[in-house]
Amino acid sequence: MARSGSIEGVLLGPIYLLGRRFVEFVAEFGRFGMMMGRVVSEVGDIFRRRDLFFRECVRLGTDSLPLVLVVGVFAGAVSGWQLSYQMEGYLPRDLLGPGVFKSIVLEMGPVLTGLVIAGRVAASIAAEIGTMRVTEQIDALESMAISSTRYLAVPRIAAMTIMMPILVVQANFIALMGAWFVTTMFLSFTTAQFWGLVPNFFHVYDIISGLLKSCFFGMSSAMIGCYVGFDASGGAEGVGTATIKAFVWSSIALLVLDYILAMILF
Amino acid sequence: MIESRNLKKSFGEKQVLQGVDLTIPTAESLVIIGQSGCGKSVFLKHLVGLLDPDEGEVYVDGDRISNAVRADVYRIRMKFGVLFQSAALFDSMTVMDNVSLGLIEHTDMSRSEITKRVAACLEMVSLPGTEKLKPSELSGGMRKRVGLARAIAMKPKYILYDEPTTGLDPITADSINDLIISLNEELDVTTIVVTHDMVSAFKIADRIVMLHEGKVVFTGTPAETKSTKLGIVRRFIEGESEDQSVVTHY
């Protein structure tokens, strides 16, 4: 390797650094892929240990509901208010309801709920598993011939894949209620104006595609949280780093996935 | 019998194990001593397949555990019970759940049978009636005992102890030593203890092995260890720093 003080070092240093980062990224991606392979091979175990699966459904899913609903109601209210402002003078008022409905069901509901979950769930999974890693609890589990992937990752990933669409349905509903409430209370819309044309623009595919996206969002957040947690090292600082990494990665993964799924689904 | 052959392991630039050859016969009580960072715990993790060596192999009853496929590793691990340095109890679980986990996962025992087995294991480690407590409610010594109850719940053939007395007061440490000896006799297991506590080592061991810079530098009975002239062992037993210049004057 080039010495850092020499001209060669100055010129080649960034290239070495870039190369090393690239190799680290590929290696990390490989480790992530290997963990996912183990998750897939052990996913059948959720039928045997249903208790673990249901516990995670409650802990990661149901317990996230208050936060998801708060985000949903304000997101709906803002979208109703802003769409009204944008349409004013250009489009008939009756189109506000369908516009809000489409934007919430197709994009805002799944993505905002996904981002909230990325913050809450991916980070909490990473912190929990990361703490288990640095305190040798995962080694203890493995030494008892219990697969840590099967015991810790599979129930969490399965629970989030199932619970995310359920959370999104509720977020969508409360967001629409929020939009309806602000437009009728403060922007002099009538209920008939808001809901009147919604059935005409209602497509089951819109709902299904939004829910399908949310399945992937839930799965990716939980996967990243688990992977980052298993990969944690170095005590409390390592757990803190893992928590931040889980939030950042899962948020980025969600937005990238959203784009890829939009191209596939629409 | 456990056999390690020319075991080598590095972490980055640091070579932790540099060719460890060791045979541990069935029913022996082996104590591995050595300075902090000499590779004792790393060696122990290789025995149970928690780490794979860069070179060399570990055989347990003739089956290779190092670099084996996961199914084989898990099958061989069923023969082991491990007590970790920090006890590594599962924080979110009660003592009952901690001790019964292996039984739930690996046996078809009924709930009442499991409850009885857990009670028996806790009785063995002198902690009866603590099933409902959480790890956060236990003292350091109690945590080690629960960790030991968890390690013996599956009736292992080999029990590995990683620094079982570290962080405990001398009286509690001695009670853990007594417990290790009594379990060794009652359960007829092979015991492998990693420690730098010489009081503990002399009390527990049939044989003492010293690791230094990733290699076995001494093997002998406790009596042989006490009488050895080998400088590195003598300094370790007597707690003398190699570098005598490191003395602070006030």
Q: What can you tell me about this protein's structure?
A:
The complex is a heterodimer of chains A (266) and B (250). Helices cover 84% and strands 0% of the residues of chain A. The longest helix of chain A is centred in the middle third of the chain and has 39 residues, at 96-134. The relative contact order of chain A is 0.15. Chain A has 266 residues and is an all-alpha fold. Chain A has one domain (49-265). Chain A starts with 6 loop residues before the first helix and ends with a helix. The mean pLDDT of chain A is 90. The radius of gyration of chain A is 23 Å and the shape is globular. Chain B has helices at 40-47, 70-77, 95-106, 111-124, 140-152, 170-187, 198-204, 222-227, 231-238; strands at 2-11, 14-24, 29-33, 55-60, 63-64, 80-83, 158-162, 190-194, 207-212, 215-220. In chain B, the strands form two sheets. Chain B has a six-stranded mixed beta sheet, sandwiched between helices. Chain B has a four-stranded antiparallel beta sheet with strand order 2-1-4-5, covered by helices on one side. Chain B is an alpha/beta fold. Chain B is built from nine helices and ten strands. Classes of the chains: A mainly alpha (266), B alpha/beta (250). The interface between A and B is medium-sized, with 15 and 23 residues.
